[in-house]
Each structure stands twice: as C-alpha cells, then as structure tokens.
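From: lab user (bench 3)
To: helpdesk
Subject: output format question, protein + zinc ion

Hello, I'm new to running complex predictions and I'm not sure whether the block I got back is the full result or only part of it. Here's what I submitted:
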Amino acid sequence: MTNKYEEIDELTLRLKAPFNDVYQLAMDEIISNGGKIKTDDFHSGYLEGAWRYGLNFGGLRVAIHIRKTAEDDIELHVEGGFKNSIDTFGSGKKKAVELIGKLKNSIDKQFNKFENIPKKEQLLEKQKKIHTKLISCNTCGGTFSALADNCVKCGEPNNWIHPNIEKLIKLKDKLPFPNPVVFEWSRYEISGETINELPIWYKIFRFLLGGVVLLVLSKIVSIWLAIILLIPVILLLLPIERLLEGKKEHFIANLENGHWETSNERMFADSRKILDI
Ligand SMILES: [Zn+2]
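Helpdesk reply: Thanks, we reran it on our side. This is the complete output you should expect:
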C-alpha cells in the first residue's frame, strides 16, 4: 500500500485531504492516546494536547499545527515540549514522534479514498508540456512554440491559449456563479472577478445630483466652466462608489506553474476543476 502522505521531515507531513477531516483526526488521535485537549483552535489550525509526565500533571505538551499550503495540500506539523519547564531529556520530542507515527497510521486508514499527492515531478511534467508544445501557424504553416508571441517564420501573432483555459472560457456562462464574473486571460493564466453592480438608487442619485449641480453652476458661470467644475464633485463620489461595490471575489490560476489563488474557494471550485489544477 502506498502512503497517503508525504514526509517533509520527521515531524511534518503533507497530504491531500479536507482540512476539517485532518483536524478532527488529529484531535481524535490526542484523545485516544490518553491526552487532554488544552487548546482547540480550529480557525488557526492549532491543537494542543497535554499528558502527565511523572509528577508533572499535564506538563507534557504536544502541539499540532495544521495549515493549507499554497498548493492546497494540508501540512501537519507536530511539536513536543513541556509547559513551564525545559525538555531536558527530549521526552517532549519523543512524545511528538510517537504521536506522528500514530497519525501516519490513521491517515493511511482513513484517507485511502483520496488520490495520491501530485508530486513536484508531475507538476514539472505539466510545465514541460506547455513549454515544449509546438503549434503550426495558420498563415504560413510553420511550426513554433506555443508560448512564442509570434510565428518565427512569418511573424503572425500567436493566438494559442491553453486548451483548459479555452474550455473554461466556453463554459463560463453556464457555470453556476451566484454573481456575474468578468474574466481575463493570457496563454496560460486566467483570472476572474465578480462584478458588484452599484445599486440602482445610487445611480439615480448620481444622475440627479450631476444634473442639479450642472444646472446651478451654469446659471452662475458658463456651461463649459460648469462641466469642468463638476469633475471634483464626481471625484468626491468615488469613495462612496467603492464602498457600495463592496468586496469582490476573485481567482487567479496559472496553468504553467500550477498556481491557484482565490478569495472564495466554493464559488470558483468549478473553474478550478475545468482548469485541472
Ligand atoms: Zn507563420
């Protein structure tokens, strides 16, 4: 059986699994190994278990840090030590090593339904595919790199984009986004941002205000001067518009280096699936 985790070092594991499942598993592991939960901070992925050590009740501590990496894996790091004293005999570390051993077993048992971690080599393989992909020119039939800006033979601009991006662009209007999204893309990078429309009452207000200010000013000065004087009024409204537009959701995906970043994973999960990163 292959392991469902990757060992970063003696006390650190990496795996592909849902964050809350890993968190729950780590908590169960502390309890089933006779530890008492001292800190339970789901939000920052921090768990601390306490054990009795000789006469030192609850002095032996093991902390488990769980975080999501940039590659969207889960990294689990275990740290052992003592509360209010120094780990002279390395017992804290020993406890941490013991616990991570148990965690490895549990991970292998519980997460067998998950795919193996995409290794760095696989990612490199994907990058290489983009870099070495050759396409033929529509104008002269010459061959050149998919990433080149122009055809090397005739100089025709290259309009190749990654097939997964092409697929997403075609499907984007059919995806169940709760808000409209605008997309921008290059050959292997695509981003999307939600459009937060200004409320209609504000648009009417802005229109009327502009009209009134223009009318009043044009009575005092000439119409052209009035239009110029209206500019500062519009500029003053900009911060209000920003506020009304609110926070936008976005994602950026780079198919060359496998980078994925989003402010709303749930909203853009479909995009990610199509992009295959
Ligand atoms: Zn050409």
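A quick orientation on your result: The chain has three domains: 5-110, 118-159, 200-245. Let us know if anything else is unclear.
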